[in-house]
Write a structure and sequence with these properties.
18% strand; 158 residues; 5-stranded parallel β-sheet; binds adenosine-5'-diphosphate; alpha/beta; Rossmann fold
């Protein structure tokens, strides 16, 4: 059974993340989308809110699990028997950081490989940080996020 972990902040999950997740779920037997607790970065949403919104947004994937974790991603992957980490690439600007991250993870554990996926062009430019920016300026985020995220964030306000 080929298990992959899709780690990230997902603060909040976007249609771009969902498209990556969909592609990954068609390639691997099981995908665990895992929200990383990041001690240094104060999130916009709590990890529990992010997990809840992911669960509400992934309705029709039956080989996807949602979780959160603390500590190193590779340790989390080992614990779950996963040999693959999924990361998404949008523009060249993602490349340097993602390359560094995947090589660091390879140096820490050779057996776990990073697989990069891309989205459909219409979702390529979406990022959690621009969504927060639009929301803060009372813009319409409905095109960029799944419906449960839109409903939750509009109710929650700034
Ligand atoms: P992190 O804080 O770990 O960078 P994010 O939650 O922002 O995590 O994103 C998780 C992964 O999904 C990253 O590899 C990021 O590049 C990728 N990603 C995010 N949005 C998109 C998108 N619109 N298209 C392709 N990949 C994306």
């Amino acid at each position: 059974m080929k298990i992959a972990i899709y780690p990230g902040s997902f603060d909040p999950i976007t249609k771009g993340h969902l498209d990556i997740l969909k592609n990954a779920s068609q390639i691997f037997d099981k995908v665990i989308i895992a929200v990383a607790h990041n001690g240094e970065k104060k999130g916009f949403l709590t990890v529990d809110e992010r997990v809840m919104l992911i669960k509400q947004s992934i309705g029709d994937f039956d080989n996807v699990e949602v979780d959160s974790f603390t500590g190193l991603t590779i340790e989390y992957a080992k614990k779950h028997g996963a040999k693959v980490l999924i990361r998404g690439l949008r523009a060249v600007s993602d490349f340097e950081y993602e390359m560094q991250l995947s090589q660091t993870n390879s140096a820490l554990c050779e057996d776990i490989k990073t697989v990069f996926l891309t989205t459909k062009p219409k979702y390529n430019f979406i990022s959690s940080s621009t969504i927060k920016e639009i929301l803060n300026n009372d813009g319409d985020i409905s095109k960029f996020v799944p419906e449960p995220v839109f409903n939750y964030l509009t109710k929650k306000g700034k």
